[in-house]
Write a structure and sequence with these properties.
Blueprint: E1 2-7, H1 12-24, E2 28-31, H2 44-55, E3 61-66, H3 70-76, E4 84-86, H4 90-100, E5 104-108, H5 117-126, H6 133-145, E6 151-154, E7 157-161, H7 165-175, H8 181-199, E8 205-211, E9 216-222, E10 226-233, H9 237-244, E11 251-252, E12 254-259, E13 266-272, E14 280-285, E15 288-289, H10 293-304, E16 309-317, H11 319-328, E17 333-339, E18 342-343, E19 349-350, H12 356-361
The structure holds D-ribose.
Length: 364
């Protein structure tokens, strides 16, 4: 485990106690300063450095120090995905982890003694997050956060929610019970296409020399990475064309799963993937991430056949589904056009849009 550490001048007095305790537990410390005691050092920069390191995946969690732990946690909480709280006792730290799943703990150099550090940090590190109703609350907070930026870390996994106005507008129409089958099909393709524009943002580019009618020049070209899209039958089929319009050379696999009525577990009835799946960037398409059972099973199937770089693309995700997928496949990034509230007693996403397969194919 790697923990990022940051302090201002007033927290500096606790720094060596924190480093000693973490190192005694064989935890790697990513020291992001301050490195010397300087009365001018403010808590803002170390808070942003530590928050940024966690958001970028360089560290799993963080410890922040200032005079009280207050200012530095307020600053760190401005970074999306950071949940920082100042804890003065081991009991505060236990509750903050069990209920709020804090990924950053702040301590005060003026309120905490060095000898109290192991008790507080130990309580934070050793307490598990309780999930359940607490996860639903954190997800509500994440929904507000998404209006400012669309990348979140949840339960250790990465999820991107698309807050682009065009996507949100179209999601609003597709949810409407009066939207026709024809409109539904068109909208699902359009939304998927808009999402892919952003999903492919990190594709590596290489320089390539070409000749324009005027002269030779160097242009950018997408490096020869190959993509595979794998819809989960049947509703995933509705997302395929939206991607192929933009990435026409992508290969398409198919996965068919049904839910065993006795065990309620997903069972494979069809799986055909591109032969070189292990070399491809794979987008698994499943519009409704509800319980997460079929998406998690589809990811496992693709992994069993050699797939390595896998993302899951959904239209609407429920917190329960995100938790399930990330608990089984924490390295899989989830992309969704909307993060909804919860599942109802029938396993439907609320507010959702009903059964995407039925609405896509007009079967109900
Ligand atoms: C610095 O004097 C002090 O205000 C700061 O470390 C912190 O306690 C703020 O919350």
């Amino acid at each position: 485990m790697k923990i990022a550490l940051g302090t201002d001048h007033a927290g500096f007095i606790l720094k060596s106690a924190v480093v000693d305790y973490l190192t005694s537990r064989k935890i790697e410390v990513l020291d992001l300063g301050a490195y010397v005691l300087d009365e001018e050092d403010s808590y803002t920069d170390p808070a942003f450095r530590v928050g940024g390191a966690i958001a970028d995946g360089e560290a799993e969690a963080g410890v922040l120090l200032c005079g009280t732990g207050y200012g530095i946690s307020i600053a760190a909480n401005k970074i999306p995905g950071i949940r920082a709280v100042s804890c003065e006792t081991p009991e505060n730290a236990r509750i903050a982890k069990a209920h709020n799943n804090i990924n950053v703990i702040a301590l005060g150099g003026r309120t905490t003694k060095p000898e109290e550090v192991p008790g507080i940090l130990g309580s934070w590190l050793d307490t598990p997050f309780e999930g359940g109703r607490h996860l639903r609350r954190l997800n509500k907070i994440a929904m507000v956060e998404k209006s400012t930026l669309n990348v979140h870390m949840q339960g250790g996994g990465r999820i991107t929610i698309f807050n682009h106005p065009l996507i949100q507008h179209k999601v609003g129409i597709i949810r409407d019970v009066t939207t026709s089958v024809k409109q539904f099909r068109e909208l699902l393709q359009e939304i998927t296409g808009l999402m892919v524009y952003d999903i492919t943002r990190t594709l590596p580019l290489v320089d390539k020399e070409i000749t324009t009618p005027i002269e030779k020049t160097v242009v950018k070209s997408i490096e020869g990475r190959k993509m595979a899209i794998v819809p989960v039958l049947r509703a995933g089929l509705g997302m395929v064309d939206g991607i192929l319009q933009l990435v026409p050379n992508a290969k398409v696999g198919h996965i068919g799963l049904y839910r065993d009525p006795a065990t309620l577990q997903p069972v494979e009835y069809y799986c055909k993937l591109p032969f070189d799946i292990e070399e491809r960037d794979i987008l698994i398409l499943d519009p409704m991430l509800a319980t997460g059972g079929s998406s998690a099973a589809a990811i496992s199937l693709v992994k069993k056949r050699g797939g390595r770089r896998i993302s899951l693309v959904c239209l609407i995700a429920a917190p329960e589904g995100i938790e399930r997928v990330h608990s089984e496949h924490p390295e899989v990034e989830i992309f969704a056009a909307s993060l909804d509230s919860h599942l109802n007693e029938h396993g439907y996403i609320v507010p959702g849009l009903g059964d995407a397969g039925d609405r896509l194919f007009g079967t109900k």
